Protein backbone atom coordinates (compact mmCIF):
# COMPACT_ATOMS: atom_id res chain seq x y z
CA UNK A 1 0.00 0.00 0.00
CA UNK A 2 1.22 3.47 -0.78
CA UNK A 3 -0.08 6.93 0.02
CA UNK A 4 0.38 10.25 -1.71
CA UNK A 5 -0.59 13.84 -1.05
CA UNK A 6 -0.78 15.94 -4.20
CA UNK A 7 -1.15 19.68 -3.70
CA UNK A 8 -3.42 21.14 -6.35
CA UNK A 9 -4.13 24.76 -5.33
CA UNK A 10 -2.76 27.51 -3.18
CA UNK A 11 -4.58 30.57 -1.85
CA UNK A 12 -3.78 33.54 0.37
CA UNK A 13 -2.96 31.49 3.51
CA UNK A 14 -4.06 27.95 2.58
CA UNK A 15 -3.08 25.00 0.40
CA UNK A 16 -5.55 22.45 -1.01
CA UNK A 17 -4.40 18.88 -1.65
CA UNK A 18 -5.77 15.50 -2.64
CA UNK A 19 -5.02 12.29 -0.71
CA UNK A 20 -4.51 9.08 -2.67
CA UNK A 21 -4.09 5.57 -1.27
CA UNK A 22 -2.95 2.94 -3.77
CA UNK A 23 -3.61 5.41 -6.58
CA UNK A 24 -7.25 5.95 -5.60
CA UNK A 25 -8.52 9.38 -4.58
CA UNK A 26 -9.73 9.36 -0.97
CA UNK A 27 -10.44 12.96 0.06
CA UNK A 28 -9.20 16.53 0.05
CA UNK A 29 -6.67 17.88 2.53
CA UNK A 30 -6.20 21.42 3.75
CA UNK A 31 -2.89 22.81 4.96
CA UNK A 32 -1.42 26.16 5.74
CA UNK A 33 0.35 28.17 3.05
CA UNK A 34 3.63 26.86 1.62
CA UNK A 35 6.38 29.15 2.89
CA UNK A 36 10.11 29.24 2.15
CA UNK A 37 10.80 30.19 5.75
CA UNK A 38 8.78 28.22 8.29
CA UNK A 39 6.44 30.07 10.62
CA UNK A 40 5.48 27.77 13.51
CA UNK A 41 1.90 26.42 13.14
CA UNK A 42 1.36 28.45 9.94
CA UNK A 43 3.37 26.58 7.31
CA UNK A 44 2.56 23.60 5.10
CA UNK A 45 4.78 20.57 5.51
CA UNK A 46 7.53 20.16 2.90
CA UNK A 47 7.40 17.99 -0.21
CA UNK A 48 9.26 14.69 -0.14
CA UNK A 49 8.89 11.12 1.00
CA UNK A 50 8.07 10.52 4.65
CA UNK A 51 6.46 7.87 6.83
CA UNK A 52 3.29 7.33 8.84
CA UNK A 53 3.05 6.01 12.39
CA UNK A 54 0.46 5.73 15.13
CA UNK A 55 1.09 8.17 17.96
CA UNK A 56 -0.69 7.09 21.15
CA UNK A 57 0.50 9.93 23.41
CA UNK A 58 -0.66 13.47 24.10
CA UNK A 59 -3.84 15.46 24.55
CA UNK A 60 -5.03 15.18 20.93
CA UNK A 61 -4.83 11.38 21.19
CA UNK A 62 -6.89 11.44 24.41
CA UNK A 63 -9.53 13.67 22.78
CA UNK A 64 -9.77 11.50 19.65
CA UNK A 65 -10.01 8.34 21.78
CA UNK A 66 -13.05 9.90 23.48
CA UNK A 67 -14.70 11.11 20.24
CA UNK A 68 -13.83 8.17 17.95
CA UNK A 69 -13.73 5.51 20.69
CA UNK A 70 -14.42 2.33 18.74
CA UNK A 71 -12.23 3.28 15.78
CA UNK A 72 -9.31 5.13 17.36
CA UNK A 73 -5.95 3.36 17.71
CA UNK A 74 -3.75 6.48 17.81
CA UNK A 75 -3.19 9.67 15.88
CA UNK A 76 -1.94 9.27 12.30
CA UNK A 77 1.41 11.06 12.50
CA UNK A 78 3.56 12.01 9.51
CA UNK A 79 7.15 11.30 10.56
CA UNK A 80 10.56 12.20 9.19
CA UNK A 81 9.61 15.80 8.40
CA UNK A 82 12.52 18.23 8.76
CA UNK A 83 11.82 20.93 11.39
CA UNK A 84 8.28 19.65 12.08
CA UNK A 85 7.00 17.56 14.99
CA UNK A 86 3.64 16.03 15.87
CA UNK A 87 2.07 16.53 12.44
CA UNK A 88 -1.20 14.59 12.33
CA UNK A 89 -3.83 14.02 9.65
CA UNK A 90 -6.98 15.03 11.52
CA UNK A 91 -10.38 16.73 11.40
CA UNK A 92 -11.00 20.44 10.92
CA UNK A 93 -12.36 22.78 8.30
CA UNK A 94 -10.26 25.96 8.07
CA UNK A 95 -6.62 26.96 8.38
CA UNK A 96 -7.42 28.05 11.94
CA UNK A 97 -7.73 24.33 12.73
CA UNK A 98 -4.48 23.16 11.11
CA UNK A 99 -1.49 24.31 13.23
CA UNK A 100 0.64 22.89 10.40
CA UNK A 101 -1.31 19.61 10.08
CA UNK A 102 -3.31 18.36 7.07
CA UNK A 103 -7.08 18.41 7.64
CA UNK A 104 -9.30 15.98 5.72
CA UNK A 105 -12.62 16.64 4.00
CA UNK A 106 -14.86 15.21 1.30
CA UNK A 107 -15.40 18.61 -0.33
CA UNK A 108 -13.91 22.08 -0.40
CA UNK A 109 -14.94 25.71 -0.67
CA UNK A 110 -13.15 28.91 -1.55
CA UNK A 111 -14.19 31.70 0.82
CA UNK A 112 -12.57 35.05 1.61
CA UNK A 113 -9.43 34.22 -0.36
CA UNK A 114 -8.78 30.82 1.26
CA UNK A 115 -9.76 27.21 0.88
CA UNK A 116 -11.75 25.26 3.45
CA UNK A 117 -12.62 21.58 3.55
CA UNK A 118 -16.10 20.25 4.28
CA UNK A 119 -17.47 17.03 5.77
CA UNK A 120 -14.25 16.55 7.71
CA UNK A 121 -15.49 14.06 10.30
CA UNK A 122 -17.06 11.82 7.65
CA UNK A 123 -13.84 11.90 5.60
CA UNK A 124 -11.74 11.12 8.66
CA UNK A 125 -13.88 8.14 9.60
CA UNK A 126 -13.51 6.79 6.07
CA UNK A 127 -9.75 7.27 5.64
CA UNK A 128 -8.68 6.52 9.20
CA UNK A 129 -8.74 2.68 8.99
CA UNK A 130 -6.82 2.81 5.70
CA UNK A 131 -4.18 5.11 7.19
CA UNK A 132 -3.93 2.91 10.30
CA UNK A 133 -3.24 -0.10 8.06
CA UNK A 134 -0.53 1.89 6.26
CA UNK A 135 1.00 3.13 9.52
CA UNK A 136 1.33 -0.46 10.75
CA UNK A 137 3.43 -1.46 7.72
CA UNK A 138 7.15 -1.22 8.40
CA UNK A 139 8.95 1.30 6.16
CA UNK A 140 5.68 2.69 4.78
CA UNK A 141 5.91 5.75 2.56
CA UNK A 142 3.89 8.92 2.18
CA UNK A 143 4.88 11.01 -0.84
CA UNK A 144 4.03 14.71 -0.82
CA UNK A 145 4.28 16.62 -4.09
CA UNK A 146 3.12 19.85 -5.68
CA UNK A 147 1.08 19.75 -8.88
CA UNK A 148 -0.89 23.00 -8.81
CA UNK A 149 -3.93 22.88 -11.08
CA UNK A 150 -5.72 26.08 -10.05
Give me a quick take on this structure.
The protein is of the alpha+beta class.
Spatial order of strands in the largest sheet: 6-5-4-10-1-2-3-7
What is the C-alpha radius of gyration, as a whole number of Å?
Answer: 14 Å
Number of helices: 2
The multimeric state of the shown protein is single chain
Report the end-to-end length measured between terminal Cα atoms.
29 Å
* Rounded average pLDDT: 95
Number of domains: 1
State the helicity in percent bands.
10-25%
Question: Low-confidence stretches at least 5 residues in length (pLDDT < 50)?
Answer: none
Number of strands: 10
Strand fraction: 35-45%
What pattern of helices and strands is seen along the backbone?
EEEEHEEEEEHE
Silhouette: globular
Q: Give me the secondary-structure category.
A: alpha+beta
Largest sheet: 8 strands, mixed
InterPro entries: DUF5675
Protein name: DUF5675 domain-containing protein
Domain DUF5675: 5-131
Pfam family, one: DUF5675
Describe this structure in words.
Pfam families: DUF5675. Residues 5-131 form the DUF5675 domain. With 150 residues, the protein is α+β, with helices and mostly antiparallel strands. It has one domain. Helix content is 17%, strand content 39%. The protein has 2 helices and 10 strands, in the order ββββαβββββαβ. The chain has helices at 59-67, 120-135, and strands spanning 3-10, 14-21, 24-32, 48-55, 75-79, 87-89, 103-105, 107-111, 114-118, 142-146. Strands 6-5-4-10-1-2-3-7 form an 8-stranded mixed sheet. Strands 8-9 form a two-stranded antiparallel ribbon. A hairpin with a 3-residue loop joins β1 (3-10) and β2. The longest helix is centred in the last third of the chain and has 16 residues, at 120-135. It is globular.
